[in-house]
Amino acid sequence: MRQRWLRRLSIGEWTTIASAAVTLWLLLLTTKQLKPDLFATRPLWIRLPAVGAVAGASLLALAAADHFLDRRAFVITPMAVVRNGPLEESPESFKAPDGTELRVHDRKGGFLEIETGLGQKGWIHSGNVELLNP
Predict the structure, then answer these.
(1) 3-class SS at 20?
(2) Residue 16's CB: how many other CB atoms inside 10 A?
(3) 28: part of which helix (H) or strand (E)?
(4) pLDDT (tens digit, 9 = 90+) per residue, 102-134?
(5) Could you tell me if 102 and 114 are in contact, meaning their C-beta atoms sit under 8 angstroms apart?
(6) Ranges of each domain in the chain
(7) Residues facing 95 on adjacent strands
(8) Closest residue by Cα to residue 120 from 90, 82, 75
(9) Pick the CATH number of 72-132 from 3.30.565.10, 2.30.30.40, 2.60.120.10, 3.40.1380.10
């Protein structure tokens, strides 16, 4: 649910929103330094943009983590063997056909811990897949 919501905007759009919120807050702080009388009776004029800047930066951090930590791979061999563990001797769990999209969770040696769209999990040799960089 969170991923779907975060992915409605691109990483560049989240950066623009966070930058605008921080810039507005810094401009108001500068104005407060130049004309202290202007904000003496209105502390919310500084606090609300500060909250907006923190929220914008937090959402940008979440969107960046979602964008850059999302590791996907595709099977590039006709029938790649997915094993129960990260060893050649591990029993076969299932076979993934060419073109299957996989989510990568971990890497140990020459093996990747993967999960299919159907929820099947296992370890696949890294030579059988091509990693997709976002």
Answers:
(1) helix
(2) 14
(3) helix 11-34
(4) 999 888 988 999 999 899 999 999 899 998 865
(5) yes
(6) 2-68, 72-132
(7) 81
(8) 82
(9) 2.30.30.40
First to last CA, the chain: 19
Output Rg (C-alpha) for the chain, integer angstroms: 24
Among 29, 74, 31, 66, smallest CA distance to 50 is for 29
With 0-12 CB in 10 A as exposed, 13-18 as middle and 19+ as buried, what is 91? exposed
Tell me if 73 sits within 8 A of 104, measured CB to CB. yes
User: Tell me: the pLDDT tens digits for 67-105?
Assistant: 788 788 999 999 999 999 999 999 999 999 999 999 998
CB burial string 25-41: b at 16+ within 10 A, e below: beebeeebeeeeeebee
